[in-house]
Amino acid sequence: MCLAVPGKIIEIYDSGGMRMCKIDFGGVIREACLQALPDAKVGEFTIIHAGFALNTLSEEEAQETLEALRELGEIENELDAGAVL
Amino acid sequence: MTSDTFSMLNQFRNANLVKAGISEIHRITTRHWAIMEICGGQTHAILRYGLDELLPENIELVHGPGCPVCVTPLELIDKALAIAAQPNVIFTTFGDMMRVPGSSRDLFSLKAEGAQVRIVYSPLDAIKIAVENPDKQVVFFAIGFETTAPVNAMSVLQAKNLGLKNFSILVSQVCVPPAMHAILGAPQNRVQGFLAAGHVCSVMGYWEYPPIAEKYNIPIVVTGFEPLDLVEGILFTIRQLETGKHVVENAYSRVVSENGNLPAQEMIRLVFEPCDRSWRGIGEIPMSGLGLRKEFNNYNAESRFEIGNIQTKESDICIAGQILQGIKKPPECPAFGTICNQDHPLGATMVSSEGACAAYLRYGRARKGISENQYAS
Ligand code: SF4
């Protein structure tokens, strides 16, 4: 139940007084409630949980995490190289 | 956001990066550490990707109570069954609840006998059903941790907004921090570090955790659900343990901020208030749950439906409570994979897509760490 997945907001609209949106999960489109994300915009990524958007996803933070891990990989390679020499 | 974002996010499953993280864990680990992932979704991801088998032997992952279906008390499941059996009711629920055994049956068998039980993806779908069926009482089984609390609160607010008289929720809403206190305070506790549940934190933030880290000298690392997220969470935790630190770190910063989602927290506060809750297999944990505020009593299924005295009866064999507290692992249960399996579950931990017993059986961890004899007994 907590394994919420990220998707892209492709449309925002009002339905019965609720801020709603259409989300693209890599090809599959679903509806979700955007009431807790008043500032979210079309094109942003969000984590959806039981039809409810919990948070927008920060692309910069994602890149930073990946960068840090890539560096770790490079250090590994250097260590490996050192071990061979 | 660019259209490449999907492929960038796929990098969180990149095997080379996972390998780099795992090697770093091997490099820095010098002794045995027991780390608990709180969330059952993480337990499943760890077993699915085989991360447990890639870690150093002396790193033990202890599986936590973060499976909402598993901790929903038997009494409430029996209440759900009693409500769902009433003729004028459409009972709606997340799919995972269907096969959870009550004292004598489950929602699935009730449905097979003709009761109106419907699986919904969201409580907001249950609202639609209530609008379409004004002559029926529509009840939603509002279970979950802080991740489902906002949408469950939203459903009540929306029912009020629309003036619905035929919608109510049966609440079993639990909170993570009191459970962490209960686990760490127990005399048999073995947990030395926590992977905090990323999506719970995406709602609540992690400002509640520093006092816990401080009080119990325990590292707490907010962790996501992709293989790379989990490896990073474990790496950060071991780094702290190996260097004698015990602080709160965020290894899921693309989704989680310290303060969490404030409008979502506000919705929760508006509709719910803290209350004591009992956790299936664990027992009552003070102020560990959320209950509907008095102003919303009209939407409380427990007040709307008169349910007579419920006599609960747990399976004599099932040790799910000990599994949920990280005291035992599924293969230590004599029924595991024999008389208890996914077709005939004896306990909720065998049913849920977040339950540890189901994960162990599904991903073939039947005999890990257990001698042949013990397994057969
Ligand atoms: S294997 Fe079945 S009986 Fe044993 S603890 Fe898990 S759910 Fe309960």
TrEMBL record, chain A:
GO molecular function terms listed in the Swiss-Prot or TrEMBL record: carbon dioxide binding; iron ion binding
Q: Which SUPFAM superfamilies match?
A: HupF/HypC-like
Q: Report which superkingdom the organism of origin falls in.
A: Bacteria
Q: Name one GO biological process term.
A: protein maturation
Q: Which Gene3D superfamilies match?
A: 2.30.30.140
What InterPro entries has UniProt attached to this entry? Answer: Hydgase_assmbl_chp_CS (IPR019812), Hydrogenase_HupF/HypC (IPR001109)
Pfam families membership: HupF_HypC
PANTHER family named among the record's database cross-references:
HYDROGENASE MATURATION FACTOR HYBG
**NCBIfam families, sorted:** hypC_hupF
| UniProt family annotation | Belongs to the HupF/HypC family.
Q: What is this protein called?
A: Hydrogenase assembly protein HypC
